[in-house]
Structure formats: structure tokens, C-alpha cells
Amino acid sequence: GAVVSQHPSWVICKSGTSVKIECRSLDFQATTMFWYRQFPKKSLMLMATSNEGSKATYEQGVEKDKFLINHASLTLSTLTVTSAHPEDSSFYICSATSGRRETQYFGPGTRLLVL
Amino acid sequence: DAKTTQPNSMESNEEEPVHLPCNHSTISGTDYIHWYRQLPSQGPEYVIHGLTSNVNNRMASLAIAEDRKSSTLILHRATLRDAAVYYCILRDVIGGGADGLTFGKGTHLIIQP
Predict the structure, then answer these.
(1) Which of A8, A38, A43, B53 could form a disulfide with B103 if both were Cys (CB 3.0 to 4.6 A apart)?
(2) What residues of B are in contact with residue A40 (Cβ under 8 Å)?
């Protein structure tokens, strides 16, 4: 099956700093990538959808100026949490699809802890 | 996406079959039935999907009711590695791969050794 990687797998940062998370599709070209967030004991919540070369579409309630998404190539999307605060601590998961498939392939997730 | 209803949790013994039910009474004619699972501290992984006919792959089988208002994911011989949260999700075929997934609470499957 298709492989999606994320880096880093976990990060601890101080409040007020910015954190960048990378999502890569390793063996296929991802026309669309998605970013999800999952709080402890909760389900995944879709944050945004990004298509290569265009601006991301954010879900209602997700601040686009706080969660910057860049999908510069068909194999890489980045999520930058700007001015992180403790309430941003969560498990961030990306997924990718080639567009012609119904299946989404998920990364292993990035656990963010903001102190 | 139309709503699905799953039991909060189920328990099964190792090496026995597991039947995970999902109700989707408001399913539309263009909705595919998808199953994903999430192992502890990992991202979800695709399990199987179908439209009308029963489907089999190396991981599981998907049995779809004739009226499509319910479906059952079947793990033929559960192992401890199958302990996970299983999500049943409906996806409109018209949207294709363009839309994100809407995850419900899923079923927490517990496997007893």
C-alpha cells in the first residue's frame, strides 16, 4: 500500500514558539492532502484540505492564520502551528490521496506538547 | 457525509472471528461504505470499502445488507494486533478523493488472549 510519513513524530515546545510538521507521500503523488487533529480519547477532526499549488481550505473554527498549510509539491505538505499555546497540544495526523482513489493514506501522526 | 452508528466497544477472543456492525440508515445511493482502523498512538489505516456487493481483501471482509442500511466488518481470525478503534465512514462517490473524512466515535475492539 501507499506510504505516508510525518516528521517529527513528536515535539515539545515552549508557548509562543512556532512548530512545523512535514507530511510526505513516499511512493505516490498526492494531489490532495488533509490535516486532522485528535485530542485524547476523541475522534479525529478534519482541520484543512490542501491541494498542490493552491491555498488550503480550512474547516469551520480552524484559524488559518494560526495553522499555516503549504502544499508546495505533489509529495510534501507542511503544517505550521504559529505562536503555539498549551491548548494546541494534540496529535496531528495528515493523510494523502492521489485523487483518483477513494482511499486516504494516513501518516503515523505527530504528537505536539506545548509547555 | 451521512451518519453512521457503531457500538462503543466490543470484546472478542484471540483467534476467533469478529463481527463489527455499523448502521447507516440514511445512506444515499452514491455513498461508499469505508472502514478504517486506528491502532493505539498511530494514524488510521484503511481496511476495506464497498458499495453494494460484499467485499473481501487480505485484512477483512465487508458484508453489506441488501437495503444498504447496515454493514458488518468481519475479521475472520482476530489477533492481538487487531485491537484498535474501528471506524465506519460513508463517502459520497461524487466527491471522489476531494473531501476529508468525517470520523465518528468508532468501535473500540478489545481482543482477549
Answers:
(1) A43
(2) none
